[in-house]
Specification:
5-stranded mixed sheet; alpha/beta; 18% strand; 412 residues; 14 helices
Length: 412
Amino acid sequence: MRKDEGAATTSAELRAHNLARLLRAVHDNAGQLTRAELTRHLSLARGTATVLVRELAGRELIEELSSPAGAQADVMVQRGRGRPTGVPSAHPRGPVALAIDLRDDSFTVAAFELTGRSAVLDRHQRAAGSGTGMLADVAARLAIRRREFGDRVVGIGIAVPSPVRGGTMVQPTLPDWQGIDVTGLLGATAADGGCPVLAGNDATLAGLAEARRGVLRGFSVALHLHVATGIGGVLLSGGQPVTGAHGSAGEFGHMPLAGGHGPCRCGSTGCWELDAGARGLLRAAGLGEQGDRMLAAEAVIAAAATDPGCGQALTKVARALGRGIGALVNAQDPEVVGLSGLAAEVYQASPEAVRTAYLAALMRFRRDAPPALLPSTLGGLGALTGASELVFDAFLTPRGLAAWRVPAQKTA
């Protein structure tokens, strides 16, 4: 998802390139490295690093702290003005990425600063109206947040429950979202043309987030599965998503991995998500699909220990999940498998059922050392975090930094 802008050929281009490299390193390492560590990491001369840090600080892109910023700090909290002492971190008036996790029954808006610290700003369930009406609600909330953060907003990232081509949802979970250019719509109604609006599949972005900031960081080849209303995922190579020829790889939920034969909303039959997604869990528990299906599915998991019907539904879904994971490991050969959304919750609630089905589905030669199943450490922030990474990937380039506003000079 990162794009090489080409080699620097002039001193000005080299300076811009090194500024972007340094700011990218602060971002990638969550503001945890000292200036000296960043200097070594980027193979810069000490004097060069000092000049670059000074310029980035002068442009209110970073500030230097006496120690790494706490992971729990809120994105809107204003830190003290203590003397800079060596740990480049996010500036309190620095860039912000707005991220949206769009689902067919709800949406969430969050703000992310340079080092990944975040704050959830809005959560709304869809009313009885249309999906296009919900997009209007998203645009209205974004407009409010854009005014709140002003020119600190460097982009808007959107995680959508659909394969995406360009900014268009090509097979979304709601019929009236079919063919909608969500980036164009929200760019026109909420972004006022002042910053980029970028979209990606929610499961792909959840995997990207785990590779950047979660359990899949540092693995060369990893498989990630994200279960919500349906099931999606992504194969990551060197931390980068393998998205396919048209950007729509990873639709694992629409593969016949659990042995079912029922018709799926996608047009196929026997899809894995019918047995292992939120719909499958609710159906196994004898429940309908009204309201927020994720909340209803989580309630089934929470009740499984005391309600026999919920317990049986959980076991059935856990087995279907494990069987499908085993089939995907046979096909993709990852080092590890990351799990987020309901996949992580089902695995943590019924680990033996998932593991038994997983091992049984593996080819014999894989069973002595099967890839570990690793629940997400990002929780509900996974897709949002991945959406914010889309924004920072675009911003942390010479071209992106050139568009950052220069703070007004103070006068005596």
